[in-house]
Automatic annotation (TrEMBL):
Keyword Cell cycle: yes
One Pfam family cited in the UniProt record for this chain: Arrestin_C
This protein's name: Thioredoxin-interacting protein
One MF term in the entry's GO annotations: ubiquitin protein ligase binding
Subunit-level organization: Homodimer; disulfide-linked. Interacts with TXN/thioredoxin through its redox-active site. Interacts with transcriptional repressors ZBTB16, ZBTB32 and HDAC1. Interacts with DDIT4.
Function: May act as an oxidative stress mediator by inhibiting thioredoxin activity or by limiting its bioavailability. Interacts with COPS5 and restores COPS5-induced suppression of CDKN1B stability, blocking the COPS5-mediated translocation of CDKN1B from the nucleus to the cytoplasm. Functions as a transcriptional repressor, possibly by acting as a bridge molecule between transcription factors and corepressor complexes, and over-expression will induce G0/G1 cell cycle arrest. Required for the maturation of natural killer cells. Acts as a suppressor of tumor cell growth.
Species whose genome carries this gene: Zosterops lateralis melanops
Transmembrane segments: none
Highest taxon, organism lineage: Eukaryota
Protein's GO biological process: protein transport
Length: 322
């Protein structure tokens, strides 16, 4: 539907005469079609854009055109019962070395809901178990998946947006995450109802196993355009903290001296040639995970004192000069 509202009154027959030397302004209105519209989007293999084009046609003169881009946001409400329900999954992988069984690696994870908005924190509860002979590293990442559909062809583009990692897990041990968080940064809302484009998000919880493929656990996410529970609770917490006055805070007492380093490090933990895992390349597949550091011993730190030795030395030097 396309209508215009002239500021100049029309004639009796409804026509408007534009007289030379005068300025005329018209207010146009355009009603978007009912039903789901694709959200404005720009990606690697395509984009969804909306434009308003205005043309002025005059007899015996070239047509003048101008267009203006505008954004369309298809609302995604994350407060529906489906998106407020928890999401959980688990997976297990058997590890082998030269066709010889070498134990297994398992991961199970759960998040409290499926729908999130920008700035929300995703709380992850996960359990990892490693019974193989290798050191594994658990990680979690928010991944975007763009699916382009056109002319019977499909293109898929995936991108890792943010990532957190845990401590390495040695053979025969396990690790648990309880409330480990990863923040949802500024993202376009999920696009699920468009027949030419889909924008989906996943929380990947995976374990890097040296010499083998990762074990990947995917939990679906829906990024919405309306505030969710996490954002409201976060704003309430920030408001409460801002109302506190600094005069109500009690200064802590002077810290106690730390224990001696040699007293808290057992003798059996002072390795002559420790094996240090190479964890700088978190997503390497076949790169070696061990390096051998030169021999060293844990050296004790200097003794604890509340007096700065540098200040004392400077004062002694000044007294000697005087």
């Amino acid at each position: 539907m396309f209508v215009f509202f002239p500021f100049s009154p029309p004639d009796e027959d409804g026509s408007v005469i534009l007289r030379p030397g005068n300025k005329y302004e018209y207010k146009f209105g355009f009603e978007l079609p009912q039903g789901p519209l694709g959200t404005t989007f720009k990606g690697k293999y395509g984009s969804v854009d909306y434009w308003v084009k205005v043309s002025l046609e005059r007899p015996a003169c070239p047509t003048q055109e101008i267009k203006k881009r505008f954004e369309v946001m298809d609302p995604v409400d994350v407060n529906t019962p489906e998106l407020l329900s928890p999401v959980a999954a688990k997976k297990e992988k058997k590890v082998s070395c030269m066709f010889i069984p070498d134990g297994r690696v398992s991961v199970s994870a759960q998040i409290d809901r499926k729908g999130f908005c920008e700035g929300d924190e995703i709380c992850i509860n996960a359990d990892f178990e490693n019974t193989c002979s290798r050191i594994v590293v658990p990680k979690a990442a928010i991944v975007a998946k763009h699916t382009y559909l056109a002319n019977g062809q499909t293109k898929v583009f995936s991108q890792k947006l943010s990532c957190v990692r845990g401590n390495h897990i040695i053979s025969g041990t396990s690790e648990s995450w309880r409330g480990k968080t990863i923040r949802v940064r500024k993202l376009k809302p999920s696009i699920l109802g468009c027949n030419i484009l889909r924008v989906e998000y996943f929380l990947q919880i995976y374990v890097s196993v040296p010499g083998s493929k990762k074990i990947i656990l995917e939990l679906p996410l829906v990024i919405g355009s309306r505030s969710g529970i996490g954002s409201r609770s976060s704003s309430m917490a920030s408001q409460t903290s801002s109302e506190m006055s600094w005069v109500d805070l009690n200064l802590p007492d002077a810290p106690e001296a730390p224990p001696c380093y040699l007293d808290i490090v057992p003798e059996d933990h002072r390795l002559e040639s420790p094996t240090t895992p190479l964890l700088d390349d978190p997503d390497g597949f076949d790169s070696p995970i061990f390096m051998y550091a030169p021999e060293f011993k844990f050296m004790p730190p200097p003794t604890y004192t509340e007096v700065d030795p540098c200040v004392v030395t400077n004062n002694n030097n000044n007294n000697n000069v005087q």
